[in-house]
């Protein structure tokens, strides 16, 4: 429709700028929602007396991770993976960890032997796809006190 009205497409630079702004907004909203969920889970832990000897509230969590693996006569492991930790009592997300083994911009620069341009690079994993979800869940446990002032003491997988 826009082409028939002779309205030009936005440039790559404009598209990238818009995408970065939207991505940042989504991350901020997600972080705020997880912060609120952590406060709720912490409050419920304190109310039920689930506190360790150091005085830190503890809660049970449900965790699951996912990465694609399909086999149509070939072995294929997906390049991205993600894991989520959810509070057992609130049923709300407390942590999301993502892993990505590929960046299009970095790969293009490598293939063409040119300098990598400045960009937001999401590649943060260079190990096996099968280890993505376990690593992301472990990160969530390590950061539970930092993020929520709460220890994840029981895992339902």
Stretches where pLDDT falls below 50 for ≥5 residues? Answer: none
Give the helix/strand class: alpha+beta
Give the radius of gyration.
20 Å
Indicate the proportion of strand residues.
Answer: 15-25%
Taken in chain order, the helices and strands follow as HEEEHHHE
Round the mean pLDDT to the nearest integer and report it.
90
Helix content: 25-40%
Tertiary shape: extended
Would you count the extended β strands for me?
4
> Biggest sheet, open or closed, and with what strands and sense?
4 strands, mixed
Biggest sheet strand line-up = 3-2-1-4
DSSP helical segment count: 4
Distance between the termini: 48 Å
Question: Would you write up a description of this structure?
Answer:
This protein is of the alpha+beta class and 157 residues long. 39% of the residues lie in helices and 25% in strands. The protein is built from 4 helices and 4 strands; from the N terminus they run αβββαααβ. The protein has helices spanning 12-47, 104-112, 132-142, 144-148; strands at residues 58-70, 76-87, 93-100, 151-156. The chain has a 4-stranded mixed sheet. It is extended and about 65 Å long. The model has no long low-confidence stretch (mean pLDDT 90). It comes from Aphis gossypii (Cotton aphid). Residues 1-157 form the Mutator-like transposase domain. This is Mutator-like transposase domain-containing protein. InterPro entries: Mutator_transp_dom. It holds the Pfam family Mutator.
Key attributes of the depicted protein:
alpha+beta, 25% strand, single chain, 157 residues
């Amino acid at each position: 429709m826009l082409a028939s009205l002779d309205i030009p497409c936005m440039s790559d630079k404009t598209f990238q700028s818009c995408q970065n702004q939207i991505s940042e907004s989504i991350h901020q909203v997600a972080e705020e929602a997880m912060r609120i969920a952590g406060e709720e889970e912490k409050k419920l832990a304190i109310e039920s007396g689930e506190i360790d000897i150091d005085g830190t509230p503890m809660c049970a969590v449900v965790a699951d991770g996912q990465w694609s693996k399909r086999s149509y006569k070939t072995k294929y492991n997906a390049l991205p993976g993600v894991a989520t930790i959810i509070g057992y009592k609130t049923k709300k997300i407390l942590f999301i960890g993502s892993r990505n083994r590929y960046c299009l911009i970095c790969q293009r620069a490598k293939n063409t032997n040119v300098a990598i341009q400045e960009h937001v690079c999401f590649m943060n994993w260079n190990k096996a796809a099968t280890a993505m979800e376990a690593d992301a869940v472990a990160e969530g446990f390590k950061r539970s006190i930092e993020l929520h002032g709460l220890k994840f003491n029981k895992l339902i997988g």
